Amino acid sequence: RIDTIAGIINGTGNYILTEMRAGREFGEVLKEAQALGYAEADPTFDVEGIDAAHKLTILAASGFGVPLQFEKAYTEGISELTPYDIAHAELLGYRVKHLGIARRRDDGIELRVHPTLVPQSHLIAQVDGVLNAILVDGDAVGQTMYYGPGAGDEATASAVIADIVDVARGLGSNSQQRVPYLGFSPDALEDLAVLGMDDVQSAYYLRIQAFDHPGVLAKVASILSEHGINIESIMQKESEFKDGRIPVIILTHTVQERQMNLAIAEMEALADIDGKVVRIRAENFN
Hints:
single chain; alpha+beta; Dihydrodipicolinate Reductase, domain 2; Alpha-Beta Plaits; 11-stranded mixed beta sheet; 8 helices; 31% helix; globular
């Protein structure tokens, strides 16, 4: 049985994040990706996670034997990511990847696409450029990973031609002998609920802009504690103090997203915090 399917399933997004590790801005790298033919003139599907969500929906249907449910997939793109957060994730031993994650649980399945911190030591963190990689975790086989080109003219043409050949072969065979396109016949599909993000559990990278007031970190730590959120590490650089504010980066242990949402709302309401809290989910794939 397959329990988890996760991976980098959009080569354009992976190329952009790879280049942003060198400190380049999102917009600059996107224009380069378009010039190289990796990104469309309208890059929305690539950079906002829509293309990846389409692919994840198909992978989940094939891996779990569930209906196609794209409209229920959570999607979050990479257009708001900054070189600052990518660089500081690296300092913490993580790499930011735009992942699609489908996970089977007793109460349903997770179906989500979003930027994710993964340990630099994990093989999927080392997949760069336009390469794609899919991690499959099975109850008997454990973790396996498959990777290859995910953008560009030849890679795209190869995939399209392979699909056309599959369709032609199917049309030329007896309907009773055809292998279902998603691996499961319609009457064998499971009706598993797609869980909302409130029910997802992950660790978190948080960045807050704190005013230089006494007790700010104590207030933040208290809010996190009240919601059952444990802190793994805190990073604060005095050299980054500017205009009375300093960025504070917090890495948490695993917690339910519902609790994190409540904690972030309380932190943003503090007079000691300037603006929105930046949040990036983290996965260790242990």
